[in-house]
Write a structure and sequence with these properties.
heterodimer; A: 3 domains; B: alpha/beta; Rossmann fold; six-stranded mixed sheet; 12 helices; about 40% helix; about 25% strand
């Protein structure tokens, strides 16, 4: 009898498999769309959370930069009036990079050489690190390590023999905390602390002298008024006293801000004027007694009202020199922007912490939602497999390999995952953008991290696909294992 | 018709049914008159299922040989083990003991991939409920087994149209199963079963879901295939008309072959088997 050769069944090409799968999905479009909806919702949630955290992070960075800008005038008025303490000198120095204006200013005020200043800066940084380390300890550990010492007092305590002994035994006992440097480094540093503190004192004295010099020029005038002139004569005074002020940019900004602050103060004083209050009360349809500054800023938004308001101010005999309707509108807008900035700063305080900058709770919530979605997809695919028992068995009778059946179902789920992922990513990104714009205000539209959001969307789609594919493994395996004789069964 | 020619030449005097079955089973080649080799052979085929601690014996020793070009009808009441027998010879299930040879290949020795190859190339299945893939057109249904078998798409398409032409559905190649009547669906299923030129067609009650007229069409097609293209057909059925076109009849009862006889032998005593077939 002739022996017949039996070969191994070849694999069907991926292209054909995808086409058969896609045809299958098209045929059961309704069921597929329900599965897609499940994936879309989960991915939308993922993308929303991801997008919001990305936006928050970008806004936080943007806000910090802008707030530093709007606070320049406050910064300068403090610097020109308040010398601070030894500790604040150290922290100021540690905060600035070598070569910056602040750095050079301190060098000038202390009268140090370059080499000495560099050593001073390094020591200040190291000291700040130690202070920060002890500051982060909880009360009990801190107390056992350095008793009640705080700030630069820590160095003093550690320099005493008993203090160092306490510290070493405490550090040996506290296993969970590692000291920031080696003990040798600490001891060497402690040896240098008298010099460090003396140098800080020198800088402090220099500051005091400079402030005294400026005080004589001010002669009782508020420093804010003087700062309005900082790009002019007063700037020269400050520079002569030893403060470094970059004329081209910083001084201009500071002067503008000082002028604006003065105008704001002037406008807020109009609350004392009866006539101004009446106008506001009319506009807001409230009693004159209920009028407040917030209302004033709200209505000054329009130039028509600003014109009327200026007239009232003149009627009340208030000085309006330098004020124009446009100026009032711009002041109101700047104020609104600043309010938005401050709110944004508050809202983004927690940005960038925890897993992917999401925070512990949200990360956990996200994990659970992904799990639920995965189980949902798994269930849907199990239903599909059960529904298609006959079809699967028939395909096996026609010569389909187990691998083909498995691939078919994993592919089906993946395709649904991609479709659902795309819908979800777009939806989630839109919701995130909308929500964040409402929360932070329209001023932040430029701060939206477009590239990062796009990458996040791509990642979300990939995540949706992966989730769907993984969730489909079990149902697919069940389908692949199905006996072909099921095809004989009659429904 | 070839069966008519052989009837006189091979007439054997037969007695009671079991004796006749034994005699016919030993010389299957006599039935078609074309000669040919053994395409399916079972040796001591037994199958038992374990259900809740009770062993059910679906098949208790079936020995049968089918040769190429033969048309066999398998009859038996439900629960007789007919379906189990079909699953065995279709390489869809493995026997508890005994062996199945398809084209002289022991099915039990094959790996999963080789089994898939066997199902794809050696056997064509026709089901009672057609089992067309719902989301494929008639042509796609017919070409799917070819795709599994590694035939190039263009070639598969060409052959698929030929096959649809054979079953008279060439002009409906782009219709989906839902747009076709039961008879048309079954014709597509027949075309699909022929896709890879199988050695044997296994039909599981192909006319049971059809009315008399369309059932007759299916029977005509099967007969034509058997006569013109020498396709081996094994057909489980309750349909009386099948007896008119097949070469041999096989009755299964309680997991055993109750009777195996050539059609001419059955014709003589048609009165007595009438009650049994339905």
């Amino acid at each position: 009898m002739k022996q017949i050769h039996i070969a191994e069944q070849p694999w069907l090409g991926l292209g054909r498999t995808v086409r058969i799968t896609a045809d299958g999905i098209r045929y059961r479009l309704f069921r597929a769309s329900v599965t897609v909806a499940v994936i879309a919702v989960a991915v939308a949630f993922l993308m929303n959370v991801l997008g919001e955290s990305l936006i928050k992070r970008a806004v936080a960075k943007d806000t910090r930069e802008r707030i530093a800008q709007i606070r320049l005038v406050y910064d300068w008025s403090a610097r020109l009036t308040n010398p601070g303490s030894v500790e604040s000198v150290l922290s100021d120095l540690a905060a600035c990079q070598p070569g910056t204006e602040r750095f050079r200013e301190m060098q000038g005020l202390g009268g140090f050489t370059d080499a000495r200043m560099t050593a001073f800066h390094q020591d200040a940084c190291q000291g700040l690190r130690y202070i920060a380390f002890f500051g982060d300890l909880d009360y009990a550990k801190r107390r056992s390590a350095i008793h009640t010492a705080r700030g630069i007092g820590i160095f003093e305590r550690l320099r005493s023999e008993a203090g160092m002994k306490d510290f070493r035994t405490a550090m040996a006992q506290i296993k969970s905390v590692r000291f920031v440097t080696s003990f040798e480094d600490l001891e060497q540093f402690l040896g240098r602390t008298p010099q460090l503190l003396a140098e800080a004192q020198t800088v402090l004295d220099g500051r005091r002298a400079a402030i005294a010099q400026i005080g004589t020029v001010l002669a009782g005038r508020p420093v804010l008024e003087a700062l309005a002139d900082v790009d002019g004569a007063f700037g020269d005074v400050a520079r002569k006293a030893g403060f470094i002020l970059d004329t081209a940019t910083e001084a201009g900004i500071v002067a503008d801000q000082a002028k604006r602050l003065l105008d704001v103060i002037r406008l807020e004083k109009t609350m004392d004027s009866e006539k101004c209050r009446q106008l506001l009360a009319q506009q807001g349809n409230v009693m004159p007694a209920d009028v407040n500054v917030m209302m004033m800023w709200k209505y000054l938004d329009s130039s028509r009202f600003s014109t009327r308001y200026l007239d009232r101010m003149q009627e009340s005999g208030l000085a309006t020199d330098g004020l124009s309707p446009e100026r009032l509108v711009s002041l109101a807008e700047a104020r609104k922007e600043n309010t938005d900035l401050l709110r944004a700063e508050m809202l983004t305080l927690d940005a960038g912490r925890g897993f992917m900058g999401l925070g512990e709770r949200l990360a956990w919530l996200l994990f659970v939602s992904m799990l639920v979605c995965g189980i949902g997809i798994c269930n849907a695919m199990l239903m599909t497999v059960t529904e298609r028992f006959t079809e699967i068995a028939t395909l096996k009778c026609l010569g389909a390999l187990d691998g083909f059946i498995m691939l078919m179902f994993v592919l089906e789920s993946s395709i649904l995952g991609i479709v659902g992922g795309c819908i979800g990513a777009v939806l989630g990104a839109l919701i995130a953008l909308g929500r964040m714009l409402v929360a932070f205000g329209i001023h932040f539209i430029g701060a939206m991290p477009a590239t990062e959001i796009l990458i996040g969307m791509a990642a979300s789609v990939a995540m949706g696909m992966l989730l769907a594919a993984v969730a489909a493994v079990l149902p697919s395996y069940q389908a692949a294992r199905l006996a072909p004789m099921e095809a004989m069964r009659i429904e | 018709m070839s069966a008519d020619n052989t009837m006189d030449a091979n007439r054997e005097p037969t007695g009671t049914a079991p004796a006749a079955a034994a005699a016919a089973a030993e010389s299957p080649a006599a039935t078609t008159g074309k000669g040919g080799r053994v395409i399916i052979r079972t040796v001591g085929l037994k199958k038992s299922y374990l259900m809740k601690d009770v062993v059910t014996e679906a098949l208790r020793g079936v020995d049968v040989e089918v040769i190429t070009g033969e048309f066999i009808s398998v009859m038996g009441p439900s629960g007789s083990g007919k379906s189990t027998f079909f699953n065995m010879i279709g390489a869809l299930d493995s026997p508890t003991t005994g062996r199945v040879f398809i084209d002289e290949v022991d099915v039990a020795q094959l790996t999963a991939e080789e089994l898939a190859y066997l199902r794809c190339h050696k056997i064509g299945y026709i089901f009672q409920s057609y089992n067309l893939i719902k989301y494929m057109t008639a042509l796609e249904n017919v070409t799917t087994p070819m795709a599994f078998g590694g035939v190039m798409p263009d070639e598969a398409r060409e052959r698929g149209m030929e096959l649809l032409d054979i079953v008279g559905l060439k002009d409906r190649w782009h219709h989906r199963p839902i747009e076709m009547s039961g008879g048309q669906q079954q014709r597509v299923a027949i075309a699909r079963s022929l896709a890879n030129r199988p050695s044997v067609l296994l039909c599981d009650e192909p006319t049971a879901n059809l009315d008399l007229r369309t059932g007759q069409e299916i029977l005509d097609i099967l007969q034509r295939l058997n006569t013109n293209q020498n396709v081996t057909i094994i057909c489980a059925t309750h349909d009386h008309r099948m007896m008119d076109i097949c070469h041999r009849l096989m009755w299964i009862r309680d997991g055993q072959i109750e009777r195996l006889a050539r059609r001419d032998q059955v014709q003589i005593e048609v009165g007595s088997i009438g009650g049994e077939t339905e």
